[in-house]
Design brief:
The chain is α/β, with parallel strands linked by helices. It has 16 helices and 17 strands. The chain has an eleven-stranded mixed β-sheet with strand order 1-8-17-16-15-14-13-12-9-10-11, with helices on both faces. A six-stranded parallel β-sheet has the order 3-2-4-5-6-7, with helices on one face. Helix 15 packs across helix 16. The protein is elongated and about 80 Å long. It starts with 6 loop residues before the first strand and ends with a helix. The structure holds ligand NPW and potassium ion. Potassium ion binds next to strand 4 and strand 5.
């Protein structure tokens, strides 16, 4: 198995792994035997003898199923096998199993467990009948289902449901997890996911294309302060607000402080300066009348990062301010209104973006900038868009994607309770803080998305944005201990 445990393999990478294994003297039959044996051992570890039905498809996934059937029977389990082996390898494995019945004769009555070996990484098109009926029948049986490699019907690369999918209790995946296990809607079909090594030797040739966000990727860049530090050396963030929605930039600013930025300045229109002075404690309040005032603040060289977007209205004025900020090539977070302001001048924005920028749209904001990607899967949206711009992209959602030049990290978890007002502003603030601490935009984005999601789990149900900010120090402490 790969040492990069966070590495997710696409179908084409799995094929390359197969070829790599064969070039090291392994045969596909050996790999299939390894897969089936590993899966059967895992099943016997979790359950005592069960009356088991194995559903085996036409390809190598079905072949794995026949191997599982043989091992379970050798261990004394009563196993009924239904299948239509077509590929030569599946047939080779089927020959070692007696009494295989046709799939249209499947009956789950008086059975305890189903093994789903219908389709794996070779599923190419949407499933139709009789597969639909078979999958629906298995799902409706109420029995626990163990899927081999993937729940049949889930697209391995994208998490798309190809017509109909098995709702697994447990998925035993081989060599490495696949992206579809972490992307909605497919993610919901995997049940418990475990990975089994099947003896494919390590190779360093595969490019990291899609991987899971884990602290190992960025933790070492986040430093705790030492005696040499002072407030300005710990990151100085400039948050730009408007008079439109004052709470949003306030939350971004407070979040930046809660994750360790030493100094945060909130710059707002003159008209609300006095109001803000009375309502915040630790942020420095400054005011602006035009984008020139913001330019002067940036000219001072005091700020290591800029956050703009939370609470900003989509307008020409916002657009002007964003363009002014981008000229300075500072680490910058563009969120909400800072992005939507460019709905009709996308090219202006794309030309001004640079390597130090992170854009943080949710899907609605994203499609305003990339309308030609409407209807695409999220993973394709992120891949394509990030190849078209020089900034890092955080495509927010239940399975937030962080993308840069077509390379994609998937955030593996987040609380669904994050779907509430203000949480996006908090992400922008956290990101601003990490950028101010000199993390590179991609690593800062991974760290911010993780901290945000993980803090949401600390809070749990009925989370509101204010609770999330409160939980940030606890989450940061968890990361450092
Ligand atoms: N990688 C490795 O190292 C190892 C991988 N291993 C295992 O192999 C699995 C991949 O095997 P695989 O490539 O044979 O594909 P699989 O998922 O069995 O399906 C292909 C069959 O399904 C058919 N078919 C496709 N779509 C269809 C549809 N919509 N409706 C109907 N039919 C459809 C397709 O037919 P065709 O498209 O050619 O007409 C073909 O017959 C992998 O997931 C893992 O479990 C292990 O053995 C250990 C080593
Ligand atoms: K399967």
């Amino acid at each position: 198995m790969t040492e990069n445990f966070y590495h997710l393999y696409t179908v084409s990478q799995m094929r390359a792994r197969e070829t790599h294994a064969v070039s090291h003297g392994l045969t596909l039959s050996t790999l299939m035997e390894n897969a089936g044996r590993a899966a059967s051992l895992e099943i016997m570890k979790r359950w005592d003898t069960k009356r088991t039905v194995i559903l085996a498809g036409p390809g190598k996934n079905g072949g794995d199923g026949f191997v599982v059937a043989r091992h379970l029977r050798e261990a004394g389990w009563p196993v009924r096998v239904f299948g239509t082996p077509e590929s030569s390898l599946a047939q080779e494995m089927a020959h070692q199993v007696d009494g295989i019945l046709p799939l249209d004769k499947v009956d789950f009555e008086d059975q305890d467990l189903i093994i789903d070996a219908l389709f794996g990484t070779g599923l190419k098109r949407s499933l139709e009948n009789p597969w639909h009926i078979l999958i629906a029948k298995a799902n409706a049986s109420g029995l626990p289902i163990v899927s081999l490699d993937l729940p049949s019907g889930v697209n391995s690369d994208t998490g798309e449901i190809m017509g109909k999918a098995i709702q697994a209790t447990l998925t035993i995946t081989f060599d490495a997890p696949k992206p579809g296990a972490f992307l909605f809607p497919g993610k919901e079909f995997f049940g418990i996911l475990i990975t089994k090594d099947i003896g494919i030797p390590n190779s360093n040739s595969e490019d990291l294309q899609i991987f899971l966000n884990t602290p190992e990727l960025w933790k070492s860049f986040l430093k705790v302060p030492t005696w040499r530090d002072h407030k300005l050396s710990r990151g100085n963030v400039l948050v730009i607000g408007s008079s439109h929605m004052v709470g949003a930039p306030k939350m971004a600013a407070l979040s930046a402080r809660r994750v360790g930025a030493g100094y945060v300045t909130l710059m707002v229109p003159k008209t609300i300066e006095a109001f803000l002075q009375g309502s915040v404690w630790g942020e420095i309040i400054k005011s602006y009348k035009t984008s020139e005032d913001i330019e002067m603040a940036l000219q001072s060289g005091r700020f290591q990062s800029v956050v703009i977007g939370p609470g900003m209205p989509p307008s020409l004025e916002t657009q002007e301010i964003v363009k002014t900020i981008l000229k300075w090539h500072k680490p910058t977070v563009l969120d909400g209104g800072a992005l939507s302001s460019f709905e009709n001048q996308k090219e202006d924005l794309f030309e001004s973006l640079h390597e130090n920028v992170v854009i943080t749209p949710h899907e609605g904001e994203f499609l305003r900038l990339f309308p030609h990607l409407q209807g695409k899967l999220r993973i394709e949206m992120a891949k394509t868009a990030s190849s078209q711009i020089s900034a890092t992209l955080i495509l927010k959602g239940a399975d937030t994607l962080i993308a840069k030049n077509g390379k994609i990290a998937i955030q593996p978890f987040a609380s669904p309770w994050l779907a509430t007002a203000g949480t996006g502003d908090i992400l922008a603030g956290i990101l601003g803080a990490f950028l101010s601490k000199k993390l590179l935009p991609f690593e800062a984005s991974l760290a911010a998305v993780w901290v945000h999601a993980s803090a949401s789990q600390i809070v749990g149900p009925y989370l509101i944005a204010e609770d999330l900010i409160e939980a940030l120090p606890q989450e940061m402490k968890c990361i450092f201990t």
